[in-house]
Amino acid sequence: MPIDISVIVPILNEEESVGLMRDRVFEALIPTGRPFELIFVDDGSTDQSYPRLAAMAREDPRVVVLKFRRNAGQTAAMTAGIEYSRGRLLVTMDGDLQNDPADIPMMIEKIDEGYDLVVGWRMKRQDKWLSRKLPSMIANRLIGKVTGLPIRDNGCSLKVYRADVIKKVPLYSDMHRFIPAMASPLGARVAQVGVRHHARQFGESKYGLSRIYKVLLDLIAIKMILLFAHKPLSRFAGLAGLAACAAAIFGWQVLFGDGATGSGSVMILTAVAMLFGSLAIFLVLLGTVASLIFQRAPKMVPTWLDGAPGSHFDRG
């Protein structure tokens, strides 16, 4: 029977949680009558998480377990689960029981309304205010300003996707937080809904303030991707024009400026002019290659903000 829903749960040292997670996912999805699979991705756990997961997989074919030899990070674990999944709809969520599987049917109903991606936002977040909530609030506002998508809670792992959309989105580093922004060049229709959030019952959080540095670096990369994904040749040609202007200015100084009186100055100005000229040529060629790549990719269309005509964003 074809799989309709794939639930993907990265696990890192959550031996006390995995059994309860399986039970709660089953309780949420069995009443829907839709065929599903539950994919656990063991991200290099050093406790008894994997033996318990392996035992569950032997007991029930709906449970699938992938194991990393070492810790690779949440994005890598999600990517592995996404690639291995067989469902038409994919659900991602944390394995610490703070996300509630009971919210999955409601989010799937939202997908069935015609959306490609449904993002959860934690209505009553059960985390420490100073170390978790405050940095998250600042990050969400910054991400919204940079990407143009006012997602209320980028850090919430509970999301539902159409498989044919999410499998086209390149993910690396810690970019699972930016999936809505990465999907926007594909014209994905995004909705967000309030979901429940529970206090951690077992173990310790795997995230701290150190993640802020990675988020900022990934945000810069995301901005560059979004900037050049639409009409890359014209974008690179604009930068090439600036480089060509700089080359012309330095070339003018070599031929007609004061720099022509000294041989040392002539050599330096000539080298700089050649450097900017080469950069201009390189940028044009780079834009040409990027255009050829995007011609083979799915058609890129801009995503309008909430409230604009033809909006592809819904606050839920």
List the helices and strands and how they pair.
Layout: E1 5-11, H1 18-29, E2 36-42, H2 49-59, E3 63-67, H3 74-84, E4 89-92, H4 104-111, E5 117-122, H5 129-147, E6 159-162, H6 163-166, H7 179-183, E7 190-195, H8 211-229, H9 232-256, H10 263-296, E8 313-314
Parallel strand pairs: 1-2, 1-4, 2-3, 5-7, 7-8
Antiparallel strand pairs: 4-6, 5-6
Structure in words:
This protein has helices at 18-29, 49-59, 74-84, 104-111, 129-147, 163-166, 179-183, 211-229, 232-256, 263-296, and strands spanning 5-11, 36-42, 63-67, 89-92, 117-122, 159-162, 190-195, 313-314. The chain has 10 helices and 8 strands. It has 316 residues and is an alpha/beta fold. It has an 8-stranded mixed beta sheet, sandwiched between helices. It starts with a strand and ends with a strand. Strand 2, helix 2 (49-59) and strand 3 (63-67) form a beta-alpha-beta unit.
Compact description:
The chain is an alpha/beta fold. Helix content is 47%, strand content 13%.
Order of helices and strands: EHEHEHEHEHEHHEHHHE
How large is the radius of gyration? 24 Å
Low-confidence stretches: 297-316
Sketch the major β-sheet.
Answer: 8 strands, mixed
* Name of the CATH first level of the largest domain: Alpha Beta
Global outline: elongated
Percentage of residues in DSSP E strands: 5-15%
What would you call the quaternary organization? single chain
- H/I helix tally: 10
CATH homologous group name of the largest domain: Spore Coat Polysaccharide Biosynthesis Protein SpsA, Chain A
